[in-house]
Amino acid sequence: MNKEQLKDLNLDTQQSKLIEKLFQSMKDGSLSEEDLQQLRDSGLTKKLLQKFGGADDSNSLDAFMNLTQLDGITRPVQEDISLLTYESVLKRMDQLKRLGNERFQKSHYTYAHAYYYQLIQLGNRYGQEVVEKQADISEELKQERLAQLNKVASLAASNLSLTFFNTNRIEESLKYADLAIQLDKSNAKAYFRRVHALQLFGRIGEVKQTFEQATKEIQDATLQESLEYEIHAQKEKDQLFEKNKQHTLKRIETDKQYSQFPVELVWNDNMGRCIMATRDIKQGELILRVAPFGCALSDDQIDLNCGSCFRKIKYYKSEKCNSCKTNLLCEICIKDPTIVSMHQEECSLISFLQKHYPNAQTRDFRFMIRVLLSGRANKLGRITKEKTPQLWNQQPFIYDSYEDLASLTTDVSKIESKQLQSFTVATNSITNFFAAVKGPKYLSDPFTKQEIFDLYPKILFNAHEYIDPLTHYEIGRGIYPTASYINHTCLPNTTWYNDDHGLILYRSSRDILKGEEITTSYLDILKPKLQRRKDLKQYSFVCQCERCLNEKLGYLCSECGEELTEKQIEIWDPIPEKQFDGRVIVCSKGHFKPLSVYESLESIGETACQQELIPTFNLLFAPYHPIHIVLYKKILSNSIRHFDEPSKIKINTVTDPQLLQQYFDALWKSYKNVFQDPENVIMFSYVDDLSELFQLYKKLPGDNRAKLLEIKDKAAFYLETQTKLSQNQLLKEFEDYFQI
């Protein structure tokens, strides 16, 4: 950190010295409680968090700074449990349950975890080591006491299961739901916990078995009613699953479009629809080309791109519609009569929007307009594959019908009530909108209101961004039903992009064997596992790909460098006043550190930009941990964006070009540590990096032509492999962006 960077914080001399001391202490590991207290007292906590990535919670910084706050935290001495009375144990268990519940209600899940875990261990130890060995009480009393201990422990295990569920640790959630049932078969909530975890794993057969067991065991009338509701909800899901199965089987039998490509649509009773390879596929081969059922540009892109194919309009002649004064068509699309006709159908609707809501953000509304227009035309037989734009038909493609769109699976039960209410409002709004412009029967003849409502969650979960491969900027959104058949994995074997005419294309990112499933990714696979789990929660499943099942913890002991595993996590007595939640990880040599230190750094790494964190991350995280990628990308993106804007230089901006190049090298090394074949698995990340590196060298003084050519050639190579750049309209933008 230099003095120039500190100016951006408007600090006085004393504050500047304090921050310099703080970061120096972080580097050499000497950060003390006194340092932290001075920081809190200075009032700089919030300001620092905002500068270092937008966090706004002083507790997060405290947890992050907790690297040396170990005073008073010691491994608990295991007490002689035989000296405790049965009554005192029950009292202690009740106290732990209360503490756990209090923390759970405040969403302090890590503290709740510790208290519930301690309760379970206390009940188990006392039962096995004392009650079972007591010779001075009757067998009947012994069994009664064991049952009571198990009952209380079962409730804690059930609560712990929910705690893990809420923090996306679904394996642990299932484990403790099973334990709760084992301890007390009448624990109704434990069955619910087990069902919810099994549903995310897709183990529907076990869900039904669990319901059957619960029906036999649960006696409470109120809980029976809840159980009946859950069973009814599962039956509705089963009916929807069966309906989708029948639609898929019918499509497999009658739809021959897939034979144009080296894949086939299949049905799997566990996974549902899948796309499978029908032959060995070489890296870079075209796997699918799918037409949009509906798409729309983002509001800030309407004047920059063609309204049909989404080409950058500055590279082509174009015409703006004289009626709506909004829709732009490039010189290629304007010659296609079907594209012109499609806009004529929407023109009056867009004109109405422009007249009455000139400054509104309308992308989602325009998106739904096109989906409904396509659906109406398809239901009335006015649009079929043969009647689609001529430009689409220049190469093989998949055309999905309205029935294909309507049959996409969505688990509405997982959508929050507030979101469902917004769908209801949106349905009413767009119905009234069409009625006002097109007449009351325009939509009501082909659609019921329920059909329109049902489209919203399908689009929410299945829409695809239209991403500029060079800038990673979102141009618009589209819905491509067949693309939604491709399942997620955190190690996908395809990459996707949009072609010259707005269709979505999938190419193999590696060699694929005949019979192998075609996969994609629904999220940023550069993130750590727990963050990926969190991002996937909206899709109502837990990823069980090879990477997720085998991914190591990736934590290192800061004292000796030993690689740590989940088996080394222990639960000690929480000390809330020290922000210690009781969870520690202990290496084989006895060195320990609060688990929250690692988790807080992982969380901060998602948003942080400061280079001062690099030594700490290297000390605590193994080279293959994805957090290194996340941090380097944040640092580089933030720094290059402000590199030639001195007025915007922040405390966390790197201004040394040689250091920036070193960070790029470190980032690419991190890619290789995380992925075996990163150039293919995350090709667009390399292109993104090279784009930024190119812009950096353009800003540097001196003759950098050789370096610029090297970077440009690398980017062209990656794009040629996956997008056939030389034959793609992207080439014009590429040459413009990489102009030397």
Question: What do these coordinates show?
Answer:
Pfam families: SET. Keywords: Methyltransferase, S-adenosyl-L-methionine, Transferase. It comes from Cavenderia fasciculata (Slime mold). Residues 261-523 form the SET domain. This protein has 740 residues and is mainly α. The chain has 3 domains: 1-73 and 553-674, no CATH class; 81-239, Tetratricopeptide repeat domain (Serine Threonine Protein Phosphatase 5, Tetratricopeptide repeat, Alpha Horseshoe), CATH 1.25.40; 258-520, Beta Complex (Beta-clip-like). Helix content is 52%, strand content 9%. The chain is built from 28 helices and 17 strands. The strands form 7 sheets. It has a 3-stranded antiparallel sheet with strand order 3-11-10, with no helix packed on it. Strands 4-8-7 form a 3-stranded antiparallel sheet. The longest helix has 34 residues, at 221-254.
Assign the CATH superfamily of the largest domain: SET domain
Supply the number of helical segments. Answer: 28
How many domains make up the coordinates? 3
Shape descriptor reads globular
How much of the sequence lies in strands comes to 5-15%
Distance between the termini: 33 Å
Q: CATH class of the largest domain, anyone?
A: Mainly Beta
What is the architecture of the largest domain at the second tier of CATH?
Beta Complex
What Rg do the Cα atoms give? 29 Å
Quick check: average pLDDT?
88
Low-confidence stretches: 1-5, 49-68
Helical percentage: 40-55%
Structural class: mainly alpha
